[in-house]
Design brief:
Elements: E1 2-3, E2 9-13, E3 19-24, E4 29-35, E5 43-48, E6 57-62, E7 67-71, H1 84-89, H2 94-100, E8 105-108, E9 118-128, E10 136-145, E11 149-157, E12 163-172, E13 181-188
Antiparallel strand pairs: 1-2, 2-3, 3-4, 5-6, 6-7, 7-8, 9-10, 10-11, 11-12, 12-13
Protein name: BCAS3 domain-containing protein
Family: Belongs to the WD repeat PROPPIN family.
Keywords: Repeat, WD repeat
Amino acid sequence: MAFSSNGMYLATASEKGTMIRVYIVAQATKSHSFRRGAYPSTIYSLSFGPCIDRPDVLAATSSSGSLHMFFLDAARNGRNQTNKLLGSIIPGSKAISDALDPANHHVIHNIAPAETKSCLAVHSVEYSQNSSKFPDVRTVVYVVTHDGYFREYTIGTTKSNESSWVLEREFSLLDTGYTQKQNEHHHVD
């Protein structure tokens, strides 16, 4: 479980780790549901992006060694929060469309060896305006693994829902000497 920095939102993971749910604490209502994956995996850490009102991003690490990033505002991608057709057929389908909409979910595989526990923090979420009316998003995430490594990732997401990531810094917290690996670039569609 994790609270947003303002205490207004609570994120939880299912026992199998396949579903991540976000609740509005004061109203005791579910606001979002996201499918992390189809196979069971232990969720080690959840972290909201910094916020004053409503967080934009929720990140999770799991026993599969992956980092998952979920966007809480589907309108960021030029989409409505609910699919009108689905909404007319299935009551309460907002949660279904949130969970299944790939625009809400991005994955970085192999941030840590499988089964290595980890803790993460979303350090910052920045929007940059470009010629389109929808911004590109730059998210900085810190991950500390139980095998003693600190990693800083920058994840970029475009208005067309393409994502890329850069391993900005990596170093061992257990070494006496400071060694740092920098700027490993990756593109994910």
